[in-house]
Amino acid sequence: GQGEPERAAPDVGIQLFQLPWVSIADECEQNIGPAGFSWVLTSPPQEHIVGDEWWVSYQPVSHQIESRLGTRDEFADMVQRCGDAGVDVIADAVINHMTGQDAPGVGWAGSSYEHYSYPGSFEFDDFHHCGLTPYDDIVDYGSREQVQTCELVNLADLDTSAPAVRARLGAYLDDLLSLGVAGFRIDAAKHMAADDVAAIVGRLPEGTRILNEVIRGPLEPIQPEEYTGSGEVFEFSYARDLAPQFESGLFSDPDLSDERPMHVPADRAIVFVDNHDTERGEAGLTYRDGDLYLLANVLMLADDYGTPVVYSGYAFSDRDAGPPAESDGTVTDSTCGAASAGDLVTDGERTCVQTWPGIVGMLDWRAVVGDAPRMPGVSAGDAYGFERDGRGVVAVNVGDEEIVLEIPTALPSGDYCDVVAASACDGADITVADGVASVTVPPRAAVAAHLGSRVP
Ligand code: AAO
Q1: Residue nearest ligand 1's atom 28 by CA
Q2: 3-state per-residue secondary structure call for the chain
Q3: What InterPro entries has UniProt attached to this entry (predicted)?
Q4: Which residue's C-alpha comes closest to atom 24 of ligand 1?
Q5: Burial category of 327 from C-beta neighbours within 10 Å (exposed 0-12, middle 13-18, buried 19 and up)
Q6: Cβ of 55 less than 6 Å from ligand 1
Q7: Any ligand 1 atom below 6 A from CB of 268
Q8: Which end of the chain has the smaller Cβ count within 10 Å, N or C?
């Protein structure tokens, strides 16, 4: 008998960069829940400095949940509606620092502040004053002491070893948990001693998800492995290894045992093609790369290493430019239409990656393959593919010629539909016979099939 194969809801996140809470709630119901994403990562929800740049979100003025992305009530409503759609919410928690402002000011929700004074929250002695560098700014990432006690780009650095500071930050995280969030991205975790992070998050309820942002600097003293005790870690090596293969067309299997060099263990790793920092910096592939960017996401979603997070932001030509906003500064509500890779040319236009048919198809593919191991891959010219043992095959072609790839597989013989392309299935793209999948991969395209996409 044929029947539908078992599906296990995959652990896949989507980072919704600078998207307002009301829009995230709609997206959860319309696109993200139905596609099968299990969580969204929001931008920081706390009160911040006033300004048009996206990065004002990363300069907390207080820990009230009031921001240009929405009010406390809107945040709570989003968590509720996403939850009803089967989607957890993970909030970006900026707890390493407060603002980087030298002049006194008033925050988004009306709170007054100075560089080292946040009335009702933190005063001068709650901050590090490292005394190691000019202006107490981090100069040398080779110095653990500078990285963890001086200021990251002039941001007033909280002394997270102090019990009172830990308690206040803990109260903020508790407050977000009371609204139903499932966990936190810990922004700039590298800039807090691993013991401090462990102390702050260690008292949260069991099951609270912690995703530490620790950018791997291969020559630096502070490594992501130090933070795996308090949660998962964004593994920057993953994107750094993936992107060059799409540029060169030279693909190779990663170490298919459980260990990859310069990678945290698979069960601790959050992997991504790009994020809001790397698309403005080191990322080899971003939305600007159109098809190749989709292909990289397909290969990431097909992999058996780590927990993938897909990135959804907006087009920009100025790295500082914030998202489209109303005249009062509130970020404009926007939900996704039928955007597709490659036609993102207008600054401010949302990339809406969560709606791309190839992404949605691969989420279902991932649900079907489950924990089937990744098998050794096959290359031919600019194409590469592999199977997840007996459950699915995937192939990418970064070249200009169509390529037929022969992938050894334990899938049952027959014709299969491709789940990446939006086009209707004619069953001619993937044929399995005698333990080999013959996959016809068009130029700059990905093709994938799974147990459930077999033509009856
Ligand atoms: C803004 C202005 C500043 C101003 C400041 C205060 O731009 O001029 O001084 O306000 O008024 C974001 C923006 C910043 C913004 C800030 C505050 O990106 O531009 O500053 O908000 O509004 C380091 C940290 C890492 C951090 C990253 C940006 O370790 O945690 O810098 N990321 C997070 C957020 C980010 C946010 C903040 C933290 C602050 O995701 O959006 O900033 O809340 C090396 C190190 C890394 C280091 C990078 C960059 O990385 O290893 O630790 O990240 O350098 O300095 C190779 C190397 C790798 C290297 C990488 C760099 O691959 O292998 O080691 O290249 O691309």
Answers
A1: 277
A2: CCCCCCCCCCCCEEEECCCCHHHHHHHHHHHHHHHCCCEEECCCCCCECCCCCHHHHHCECCCCCCECCECHHHHHHHHHHHHHCCCEEEEEECCCECCCCCCCEECCCCCEEECCEECCCECHHHECCCCCCHHHECCCCCCHHHHHHCEHHHCCEECCCCHHHHHHHHHHHHHHHHCCCCEEEECCHHHCCHHHHHHHHHCCCCCCEEEECCCCCCCCCCCHHHHHHHCEEECHHHHHHHHHHHHHCCCCCCCCCCCCCCCCCHHHEEECCCCCCHHHCCCCCCHHHCHHHHHHHHHHHHCCCCEEEEEECECCCCCCCCCCECCCCCECCCCCCCCCCCCCCCCCCECCHHHCHHHHHHHHHHHHHCCCCECCCEEECCEEEEEECCCEEEEEECCCCCEEEEEECCCCCEEECCCCCCCCCCCCCEEEECCEEEEEECCCEEEEEEHHHECC
A3: A-amylase/branching_C, A-amylase_C, Alpha_amylase, GH, GH13_cat_dom, Glyco_hydro_b
A4: 188
A5: exposed
A6: yes
A7: no
A8: N
pLDDT in tens, 322-370: 999 999 999 999 988 655 445 556 899 999 999 999 999 999 999 999 9
Task: Name the burial class of residue 355, with classes exposed (0-12), middle (13-18) and buried (19+) by CB atoms within 10 angstroms of its CB.
Answer: buried
Residue 1 confidence (pLDDT) above 50: no
Q: Whose CA is nearest to atom 53 of ligand 1?
A: 215
**Catalytic machinery residues:** 187, 213
Q: Whose CA is nearest to atom 19 of ligand 1?
A: 55
**Sign of the torsion formed by the C-alpha atoms of 325, 349, 283 and 201:** positive
What is the rounded distance in angstroms from the CA atom of residue 430 to the CA atom of residue 364? Answer: 17
The domain spans of the chain are 13-234+314-350, 378-453
Could you read off the pLDDT of 204-219 as tens digits, one per residue?
999 999 999 999 999 9
Ligand 1 touching residue 187 (CB < 6 A): yes
Q: Say which CATH topology domain 13-234+314-350 has.
A: TIM Barrel (3.20.20)
Residue to mutate (ligand 1; options 277, 278, 309; most atoms within 8 A of CB): 277
